[in-house]
């Protein structure tokens, strides 16, 4: 029997995070998470921890939005 992976629900700080995630998906397709990670790395290199955390959050949301399987509670 395969063990299911438990994931916690994503934290979405505001609507702009969701807008950024959907915009990256529209512009970069399957590479959207890579683009978000790249932006996070660039922000980290500039010392901007707020934008670093924001782009990491966008990256996690992009991965979740592109997932084929359902996570969390289904109503």
Number of helices: 3
> What share of residues are in beta strands?
under 5%
The main sheet comes to: none
Would you tell me the overall average pLDDT? 87
Q: How would the global form be characterised?
A: globular
Structural class category? mainly alpha
Helix-strand sequence: HHH
Radius of gyration, in angstroms, nearest whole number: 14 Å
What is the number of strand segments? Answer: 0
Secondary structure: helix percent = 55-70%
Tell me the distance between the termini: 25 Å
**Uncertain stretches:** none
Explain what you see.
The chain is mostly helical. The chain has a domain at 15-66. The chain is built from three helices and no strands. It has helices at 15-28, 32-45, 49-66. The two termini are 25 Å apart.
Summarize this structure briefly.
The chain is mainly α. The protein is built from three helices and no strands.
Can you lay out the helices and strands and say which pair or pack?
Layout: H1 15-28, H2 32-45, H3 49-66
Helix pairs in contact: 1-2, 1-3, 2-3
Observed structural traits:
75 residues; mainly alpha
